[in-house]
Amino acid sequence: MLSRQVFRSLRAAAPQRAVALRAAPVRTFAAAASSDVKPPIAVFGLDGTYATALYTAASKTSTLDSTAKELAKLAGILDKDAKLVGILSAPTLTPADKSAIVAELVKQAGASGSTLKNFLETLAENNRLGLLKGVADKFGQIIAAARGEVEMTVTSAQALDSKTLSRLENAVAKSSYVGQGKKLKVTNTVNPEIVGGLIVEVGDRTIDLSVSSRIAKMNKLLTDNL
Questions:
Q1: Based on the domain organization, do 69 and 153 belong to the same domain?
Q2: Interval 67-97: pLDDT, tens
Q3: For every residue of 38-90, which 3-state class applies, written as one string?
Q4: pTM of this prediction?
């Protein structure tokens, strides 16, 4: 797990903590946020502000695709490593700690350019590394909009085969749920609690065809009439 690697990096950086370090100047990443680059959608919250700044910087340096892949890889790691989220959010991180963490994150992301590295350094210097997962999610939303993608999440009690997912994708793509010229990005999530059926989420719309939903409606009907 990445949290163990980060702990090792922090231990390796421990000797530097004996040196009195002045706080690094706060970097705003604003130099990249030029008015000539506009994201396709607005995302909100502090993590949205950082995601927008990263999109602007990556656009100006023509590194949108690589940055999206690198950030998505870090988001996947954070999803699987709960301890890492706690490490990134720790208020007691020293400058040496932050440097070690950024180096490890850059390594895990496989970042070859400077865009993501500079951005992570900015988060670290502003004590905002704990926002990384939120930033990744908001950045993903901006990228999807820029690519003309509409996200469709299909929740099922068991994993669906590719043929079934393809049929669903084709059906929804032809519906009014997806705008003209848009393309679907389909994700299948598994939740045994829905018992059976499907829950289809397209953009901000939800189609609940789950067995659990039907049971809940039936229970309510029986309760109301007894």
A1: no
A2: 999 999 999 999 888 888 889 999 999 999 9
A3: CCCCCCCHHHHHHHHHHHHHHHHCCCHHHHHHHHHHHHHHHHHCHHHHHHHHC
A4: 0.69
